[in-house]
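Lab meeting, action items carried over

1. Structure of the six-component assembly. Owner: GW. Status: complete.
Input record:
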Amino acid sequence: MHPSFIKVSEEKQRNIINAALNEFSKHPYETASTNKIVKEAGISKGILFRYFGNKKSLYLFLYEYVLDKLSEAIFADLKLADPDVFERYKQLISMKMNLVQQNPAFFHFMNRVLIEKSPEVTTELEKIQSLKEENNYDKFLTDIDYSFFKEEIDTKYALDTIKWVLDGISNRYDQQLKESIHDIDSFNTLIDQCTVEIEEYFHFLKPLFYK
Amino acid sequence: MHPSFIKVSEEKQRNIINAALNEFSKHPYETASTNKIVKEAGISKGILFRYFGNKKSLYLFLYEYVLDKLSEAIFADLKLADPDVFERYKQLISMKMNLVQQNPAFFHFMNRVLIEKSPEVTTELEKIQSLKEENNYDKFLTDIDYSFFKEEIDTKYALDTIKWVLDGISNRYDQQLKESIHDIDSFNTLIDQCTVEIEEYFHFLKPLFYK
Amino acid sequence: MHPSFIKVSEEKQRNIINAALNEFSKHPYETASTNKIVKEAGISKGILFRYFGNKKSLYLFLYEYVLDKLSEAIFADLKLADPDVFERYKQLISMKMNLVQQNPAFFHFMNRVLIEKSPEVTTELEKIQSLKEENNYDKFLTDIDYSFFKEEIDTKYALDTIKWVLDGISNRYDQQLKESIHDIDSFNTLIDQCTVEIEEYFHFLKPLFYK
Amino acid sequence: MHPSFIKVSEEKQRNIINAALNEFSKHPYETASTNKIVKEAGISKGILFRYFGNKKSLYLFLYEYVLDKLSEAIFADLKLADPDVFERYKQLISMKMNLVQQNPAFFHFMNRVLIEKSPEVTTELEKIQSLKEENNYDKFLTDIDYSFFKEEIDTKYALDTIKWVLDGISNRYDQQLKESIHDIDSFNTLIDQCTVEIEEYFHFLKPLFYK
DNA sequence: GATGAATGAGGGTTCATTCAT
DNA sequence: AATGAATGAACCCTCATTCAT
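Predicted assembly:
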């Protein structure tokens, strides 16, 4: 990213980032169109490439940007973190839900990156991810009180299971959420349904794992 | 698909199908290149379009082909189906692993189709899928003996949990498997690791769910 | 044209020629499809190119064929030729009408060649035409009795005028004739209208030119 | 047509238009090659499609352009219109000749459009033509003084005859004009010959029709 | 002789990227 | 710094022609 990008007004920066997130969350990397991005952002073709050099750099910049924002949010959240891992995850989910509602494109971009790494960008995506690793889920799981767990439970497996159940539920709702992105009512309904479902699965798992 | 395609030597058929699966598993439908497919398959541009008419038909042919092969495999497997859901899933996994080893592109194509239905082909993909419906996961879960489960366990949640744990492990290995697609040794090592890991997680879950 | 073509059954020859005439009368040279020709003629791709070498040769063969058939017909007609040039032209027209009705593609091919010489074939078309020149309109105009004409009339201009009036009327009907090629009733109606119109224009010209 | 096209230097515009007219006058719409156009015009493929969007729009733009230029010329000419239909036609011819000399491709394009309406563009061609209708031949024949004609002459037939004689002469020269498009001397000689010939035929017809 | 599978140059079109202004 | 016109490689696909069978 070119230093001149930071000098432009924050609003313009936001416009560009949102336009790009929006395009990259709607289409796979290779299909996403820089033309649409500049059009939606209201900037010229030239300036986008001055700021970001090329499509790939823009994409990687967005990924880094999103990871940072996410980690900021997680970090902020962690202060109020509950030692109960189920509560902790509920907080994470509620935080995510807030993000989703504030900026669906932001969230859908993240989801898309996770599932569909184009060969043109995989390597770099992973490089970035490993650089930001300290801010990832592992950090999110600090200060969990493992004494809630039954003694015979290997918490490593238990935590993965919880996470994957959450992932499974998320996937169930993802496509529908993306489709109802412009119908705020059904969008919120879906989010409520999802939250309820998470509660149910947690209610199922908790007595299995906890004393 | 043009009848002449079936008349061609099986090796050539395999070359073409594999080249196409490979390209379509690396790139989204729109950006997958028929040029690269013919190059990798060692055939001329013209003949690809004689066999399949156009890119879309080729893609849908592959989808149908993959569904059929998968259903063959599942069907063969089901005969020995164990009423124990964990055993059933282990069979499914081992079947998948065999498929993966025989034809990694086959498997990666399937994964991509599942996550990224391009708007140009969604409708037709779904049409094909509904035609092949009888062979899906639901059928895979027939004749499970639920009496193994503890009475207090709601099997609906338990089955989802098992499935999602499998998905989680799969995702962990997917990207690595794709990358080591041309290094058969590390590929097989990964598959072994994955199998072991599944065993571990099942070993963790089983006493929680079963009597 | 390859000698083997003459050895095949006349019916097959006719099939091929008609299929080709039909295609070339429907489409300009460059757009006409050898695929459609072989399909309609019920022959293989290979044999068409064995008989005619390439598309251009086929086209030129057809042109020569059509010129020959036309000159045959004219020659046959000439025997009954009337010394009155108007009557002579009426005979020519009626002969043409017969040809049109017998084989519209034959006729439409001729028309198309006359107006739309593709640069790929112009030179050769003209070469053929000059070879066949002895059979053309000039011959058709032998033994005309010029004593019908007023003395002050330069018959060179008069004959051209008559011919061009006929051409003008023909052009008026051409497109419509081509469109109604499959509706024999409206096709015949058009031909009748055309004949009437020719009579009218001749009735207009005759007193101007003739004593 | 994209607004950027008008901003470009007139010379470049002319180059592009002439290259396109030239290609479309040599080949039927479907086989005319945008590749050849950009090559002859000395521009990139991309910019042609930026200016005109697609081949069809380019073609229709040319048609409209040609109709407009033609109607400009006719309109300018009409101001001096002579009530004598022969003089009127001579003016039309001399105007056409000027156009031909200024831009032969322009003229040949027009000729091709008239004879060979490709199914892909017929509808739109007709739409454009009907929009420009006010400038057609009918208008050209307004305010003719029919009192010059002998009383026994049916002017309807006479006017058609004059027009068709002109068409006949034109056709005689058309192909030759197209061939000598790059040899300006023989081109001009042909045009002079044609003009003389028209004079001769008019000199022949006039005493037949006029008092 | 006859087939039709196979070829590959060429078709129209798009789009990330560059560069003169 | 900012624009958007210009580039050209790559896209999917067609079709006259060849050649193994």
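2. GW to write a short summary for the group page. Key points so far: Chain A touches chain B through 27 residues (CB under 8 Å). The radius of gyration of chain A is 19 Å.
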